[in-house]
Design goal:
This protein is mostly beta strands. It has a domain at 1-85. It is 3% helix and 41% strand. A five-stranded mixed beta sheet has the order 15-19-18-17-16, with no helix packed on it. A hairpin with a 4-residue loop joins strand 3 (24-31) and strand 4 (36-43). The two termini are 25 Å apart. It holds the Pfam family FBA_3. Residues 20-173 form the F-box associated beta-propeller type domain. InterPro entries: F-box-assoc_dom_typ3, F-box-assoc_interact_dom.
């Protein structure tokens, strides 16, 4: 069951409960060509992939093609045990979901509506998907000493380029006096292998990293300066940077009234 709250002038919107499956994930997307908002829904069972058009006439979920149409056994995960994570949204137009594959993740272009595989530049299971400066980024951290940041420059033909290489010994770590702990270990630079990228801000210049102990760190890709943030982040919290838009969600209800 899904609600849209705080984005409409009227009461919270309850989406129809056609979509089933406990192991599921959903995200809001925007089709700029038709100015339609859509909810993209993925589940681990055979129901697969569905779309709900918020400005459509029929209030129902539409089944769409997925990346494993020919053979469900080709899925790189056990549908019973697998837990979907929140997708990475690129300007609300392309959504990317992690799957337990060493080669690819799955993506959907909101305008087209079909889900497909996007192959990563390097085979590895230890990676993170984040948005950096309006582009999808894959961050690899296979060691305690280095991180590699790749950018998907062209989604259609899947062109990748390496944007940054973060080396531990080149980082200028600054611990603010107000954040220094009585423990010398906690006041030192964290181990890169224990950091997970969660998002990028300031047009991709700053990389936000979460430590396993919930501490948050900010890394500046231009100056190589890393600082510990004043706040922590619990495991169940999602970090989503806010970006203003010319298209207000309040217009959804207006669009529906005109149909």
């Amino acid at each position: 069951m899904y609600y849209l709250e705080g984005v409409l002038e009227r009461e919270p919107w309850l989406l129809p409960c056609d979509a089933s499956g406990i192991n599921a994930s959903a995200a809001l997307g925007f089709d700029s060509s038709t100015r339609q908002y859509k909810v993209m829904h993925v589940v681990s069972d055979s129901n697969g992939f569905e779309i709900f058009n918020l400005t459509g006439v029929d209030e129902r979920w539409e089944r769409v093609s997925g990346p494993w149409e020919e053979d469900l056994d080709d899925r790189p995960f056990n549908p019973i045990d697998f837990r979907w994570k929140d997708p990475v949204s690129i300007n609300g137009r392309i959504l990317h979901w992690y799957v337990d594959s060493s080669e690819y993740f799955i993506s959907v272009e909101v305008k087209e509506g079909g889900f497909s595989r996007t192959y990563r530049p390097i085979k590895s299971r230890k990676y993170s998907l984040v948005e950096l400066g309006g582009f999808l980024s894959v961050v690899y951290c296979d060691s305690d000493m280095k991180m590699d940041v790749w950018i998907l420059e062209d989604f259609e033909v899947q062109v990748w380029s390496k944007k940054h290489t973060i080396v531990a010994e080149s980082i200028n770590y600054i611990c603010l006096k107000s954040l220094k702990s009585s423990s010398q270990h906690e006041g030192s630079m964290p181990n890169l292998g224990k950091l997970v990228p969660v998002t990028g801000v300031r047009n991709g210049r700053l990389l936000i990293l979460k430590h396993r102990n919930s501490n948050i760190y900010v890394y500046d890709t231009r100056t190589n300066v890393m600082k510990k943030a004043r706040s922590n982040m619990k495991n169940l919290v999602s970090f989503i940077p806010y970006k203003d838009s010319l298209f207000s969600m309040n217009r959804i209800s207006q669009c529906r009234d005109l149909i």
